[in-house]
Design brief:
about 250 residues; 7 strands; 7-stranded parallel β-sheet; binds nicotinamide-adenine-dinucleotide; alpha/beta
């Protein structure tokens, strides 16, 4: 019996990185996983490597009509939604002066708007079938910002408080909602950061120096936190900010 046996989980941004590893981890513990992304090829490949319990759907999290279709598809195929991981995100760098208003809107649209739509339509489906667990991917920079991440940190701060609002609304409906706040995790998202260093080794050392545990985060570190929040082991935990950052925020 797995820790999330037979739960139906939809994960956005699941073609790569943290989303993909979380989908794998949930599937290892018995969940039926739906990987959602705009990257068709990588997403379908990830689902096929996970195997029988996994499927892929094309979902751009910024498109409201796509969310409606996705929830209809999940209900028609699996009858309910137990876990929703709102993970899709983008992280273009830029300080308040260099960030264009277009870029600001794009980042807010994907990182905050996409999570809002996920919560809105996820709650709608979950409440008809006894509740569920929503896990929103925020960031440590929602709590401690960085000059060069003006739009990104603002978008992740929006996710932090939206999560608490959803937790308050969803509690009586049996819906929990928590946010996860990773530190620097080894994914494609850190490519721009890595390019600031002459080689791989010095980039790793810089990441390791950011936290007292002295190493960069791996996708499995976040996937294990997601697994806990998805499972009934966290059944009395809602509205929480789970920092998974090697202690960086300390
Ligand atoms: P990643 O770039 O490897 O993966 C992001 C995924 O989101 C990709 O598969 C991408 O195609 C998808 N995506 C982007 N826009 C989308 C859209 N409009 N609709 C659907 N899918 C879309 O990055 P990652 O590191 O795995 O990031 C996952 C989440 O974790 C993001 O929300 C990110 O902000 C957050 N996070 C990452 C780090 C880190 O250091 N890697 C730290 C803190 C928070």
């Amino acid at each position: 019996m797995g820790r999330v046996q037979d739960k139906v989980a939809l994960i956005t941004g699941a073609a790569l990185g943290i989303g993909r590893r979380s989908a794998e981890r949930l599937a290892e513990e018995g969940a039926v996983v739906v990987l959602a992304d705009v990257l068709e090829e990588e997403g379908a490949q990830a689902a096929s490597e996970i195997g029988g319990q996994a499927s892929f759907i094309n979902l751009d999290v910024t498109q409201e009509s796509a969310w409606v279709r996705a929830m209809e598809w999940v209900e028609a195929n699996f009858g309910r939604l137990d876990v929703l991981m709102n993970n899709a995100g983008i992280s273009p760098a830029g300080d308040v002066e260099s960030t264009t208003y277009d870029l600001w809107q794009q980042v807010m649209n994907v990182n905050a708007g996409g999570v809002f739509l996920g919560c809105k339509y996820g709650v709608g489906l979950m409440k008809r079938h006894g509740g569920g667990s929503i896990i929103n991917m925020s960031s440590m920079v929602a709590i401690r910002s960085s000059a060069n991440l003006a739009a990104y940190s603002a978008s992740k701060a929006a996710v932090r408080l939206l999560t608490k609002s959803v937790a308050l609304y969803g509690g009586p409906l049996g819906i929990r909602c928590n946010s996860v706040h990773p530190g620097g995790v080894q994914t494609r998202m850190l490519d721009a950061f890595r390019k600031l260093f002459p080689d791989e080794e010095s980039a790793n050392q810089a990441l390791a120096r950011q936290n007292p545990l002295g190493r960069p985060g791996e996708t499995i570190d976040i996937a294990n936190a997601v697994l806990y929040l998805a499972s009934d082991e966290s059944s009395w935990t809602t509205g929480m900010e789970m920092c998974v950052d090697g202690g960086a925020l300390l």
